[in-house]
Amino acid sequence: MTFFGSSGASTESPPASEETVAEVPPSTGRRRGRASTQADKQAQTPDSRGVVVCGSDRTMLRVVTELVSSGEQVTAIVNPASRHIERIGELGAQVMGVRVVRESVLRRAGIDTDGTKPSAARALVLLDADDVHNVHTALTARDMDENLRIVVQMVNPRIGAQLHQLLGDCVVISGPSLAAPAFVADALEDDELTWLELGGRRMVAGPADLIREKVTVLADTTSSATPDLLPQSSDDPAGDIVLGTGVHHLRRKRDVRRTGWVMATRDVLDRRVRVIAAVMASLVVIGTALTHWITGVEWLRALYLVMGAVTSAGIEDDVFADAPPYAKVAAVVVQLTGIVLVALLTAVIVDSLIGARLSRVIGGVRGRPRNHVIVCGLGTVGARVLEILSERGVAVVGVEQDEEAPGIQTAHRLRIPVVMGDSSQEETLRLAGAPQAQAVLALTDGDITNLETAMVVRDLNDDVRITMRMFDHDLAHKVERMLGLGHSRSVSMLVAPAIAAAVANRRSQTTVPAGRRVLLLTEVTVERDSVAVGRRLGELDEPGGLRVLARADGVDWDWSPAFGRPLGAGTRLAVAGTRSGLARLLLVTRAPHRPDRSGRIGP
């Protein structure tokens, strides 16, 4: 299983009602091809059997586009209420409009009970935002076909990590884990680091002076023309490209502080409270002086009487028994005025405590932050961005309108200040320090909201770097070309190729540049009947060509493997190597070619 983390795609929740199926004929238009080398074409030749995709959101649209353009026969199970259902049919997929996915629906889509029919589907892609629905559908499909390849987009990473034990041939994909590093790189203008998921860990490759908790040296780039790849040791660590599990802090966190309780209390006591308190204080002072002069009581007693009247605590009638009528009337007026003022004061304080202001003051920004990054939209993608920026030690401020957003808890855990409000409003962005920020990431689920945020930020700060999350490719292109607001990225466009690669059983590999050369980091499985079965792990290492980093014989990965231990069928290896070194590894780990159940010759 390849595990990427938690998912961030939003979807339209299907109502729990009777199943309705409406099939849309596939488009007769010509499918778009993709240029590739002859070897790539052979590796990417699709099986004659189709792929079933379940979902309703925009990630579904991107995934179907990617699969159809690769020549796959796609059957899409879509909620009839989805606004993408017609577009999916136009792409060339056979569409089934279904509200509830049941076993009968999966069977109609081509998932066979034993997978022996020529028309049986070979893979199932689940893109629902509800993990429970995904797991239930995956278990149902596994009972129907034990050899079915299942690709799942999961929100909860802990559930995703256990799916391999339940489902066997399963791939878990995460949109936030794939997209967040790209947004962070845009914000920091940092292209020296490469983030990846390898061997059950989130890893980072880059210059040695930026990486902490180093795992291995990938290259010695002292000579940029001919770097030494996968060296055993290096005389100049400063020139190394290394693989590690974290990066050094940039020491900027002190620039942004959360508001403490002192600041929170001051914000609760806003202008309205101060005005009412000033009127009450003036009334007490004037009333005390008049009471002392009219009744002749001492000053402290006069102060006590007037404060009791203003705060509606009462007034002693015997003191004013012999007072002139106008004094008695004045005492009543003072008392009535006090009642009104106390009521107003109570209403204002309650409004400050339970309204939107409370959310802002408890998690808001203290002082005037500078040179920080503002993350607008704390959904699953925004939460992942906060984690990476926090690990980098970057000063960051979050902006979110929904108090239940996933990133709110992440921000509180990491002690990151959050401004509660609409990110497209100037007041909200000013509170977040947009005029002094170095970068703003607009990551909400709405293209228009992100565009409005970018336009307001540009008006506040001409020098700030802006990156927008946008689904509409045409709109993003026009915005970048005509408005010059900054870069735009799409989470679904990053997720779709990874899902298509998982469906085709292509390895997910990451390229790490080292001078004028490159290294590939990936995971390889030792197949049954391959030459590698029974060999010792150390025999696979090639100086300068291939290095085994970790192995897994079950679910857990061992990053300190015993190199004298023999390999078994199903052993997974996390490796780093050159293209030629990885090619030689694949030759010894793949099983001999044999016909599969559909009659196609393949490994």
Strands, helices and their partners?
Layout lengths: L22 E2 L13 H6 L7 E4 L3 H12 L4 E5 L6 H6 L3 E4 L5 H7 L13 E4 L4 H14 L4 E5 L3 H11 L2 E4 L1 H14 L5 E5 L2 E7 L3 E10 L7 E2 L10 E8 L9 E2 L2 H8 L2 H25 L3 H12 L14 H30 L1 H8 L1 E2 L6 E4 L3 H13 L3 E5 L5 H8 L4 E3 L5 H6 L7 E4 L4 H14 L4 E5 L3 H11 L3 E3 L1 H13 L6 E5 L2 E9 L20 E7 L19 E6 L1 H11 L4 E2 L5 E2 L1
- Within the largest sheet, what's the order of strands? 1-4-3-2-5-6-7
The unreliable regions are: 1-47, 251-255, 358-362, 595-603
Percentage of residues in DSSP E strands: 15-25%
Number of helices, counting only DSSP H or I runs of 4 residues or more: 19
Radius of gyration: 32 Å
- What is the residue-mean pLDDT, rounded to a whole number? 77
Shape: elongated
Q: Could you tell me the number of beta strands? A: 26
Would you tell me the structural class of the helices and strands? alpha/beta
Termini, distance in Å?
18 Å
Task: Describe the main β-sheet briefly.
Answer: 7 strands, mixed
